[in-house]
Predict the 3D structure of the following.
Amino acid sequence: MNYRHSYHAGNFADVFKHALLALMLDYLKRKEGGFRYIDTHAGPGLIDLAGDEASRTGEWRDGIARLAQADLDARQQDLLAPYFAGLGGKPVDEKSFIYGGSPCLAQNLLRPQDRLTLCELHPEDARRLERNIGRDNRVRLLQENGYRALKGLLPPPERRGLVLIDPPFESRDEFEAMEQALVTAWKKWPTGIYALWYPVKEIRPVAQFIERLAARNIPRILRLEIAVDMIRTDGPLAATGLVIVNPPYLLAEAARDLLPFLARVLARGPGGSFLVSEVTGERPA
Ligand SMILES: C[S@@+](CC[C@H](N)C(=O)[O-])C[C@H]1O[C@@H](n2cnc3c(N)ncnc32)[C@H](O)[C@@H]1O
């Protein structure tokens, strides 16, 4: 386990993932009843963008810093409001900004009746996460393998909620592991929302992952992606995606408005691009 999210916090992939996560949590809050947020690979939570690790790569400069400086129209403001609320406000000075990763973003957005279960396996990041979450009766922290823990957490007592599966993609079989975790989880809790994050380092493994998911006959799957540059196996990460099972009904429409904007603002080259598509497989009539 070498991956540490603090080096990448606030980069274009985080902006994409966290803006959509915040939007989905916001949709879940439209019903009064409490829901459960499960983060299988939570990371440390809060990351100082001026700290050693984030400064060493400076990836946030092409991510949250660009978004913070962009002009937003009314629709973009609406769609990004939950993200900025989760971050504790739109960054004014990104150089002295503490960036909230997925668990802290969710902690800020959830209500007293909602619950969070957060898994983080790396001992140092688990310690940081515990410190960053502080005392909060809504939160349960597990220093466990998130894939394994997930089975025992479903279905949650609230019967409503979202599972974020956001692994580090250090191992070659991460797509297979993620797919397996989803299929097992979906059988136990078919009505939950599942958001699976992935990097697009090469087109082929992503295409194969999507094909395999389509063949699983899970009824409602949305695929969202943005690219901020040409995809090159020897270059820095340039594209990222989320597969969302049981997407909230407003999400596809929101993504069609938000993703072209994010792709344009975050583009490192001449043109960014985006994708919003349904993943459908053959189903028996
Ligand atoms: C991509 S980062 C998570 C980022 C975080 N979800 C966010 O959006 O801010 C992946 C994290 O998973 C942790 N990790 C790696 N393998 C794990 C496993 N099997 N179970 C739980 N956590 C794991 C890593 O230590 C790392 O902190």
Observations:
- Residues 12-28 form the longest helix (17 residues).
- Residues 1, 3, 5, 17, 39, 41-43, 101-102, 119-122, 125, 145-147, 166-168 surround S-adenosylmethionine (CB under 6 Å).
- The CA atoms of residues 217 and 225 lie 21 Å apart.
- The chain has a mean pLDDT of 94.
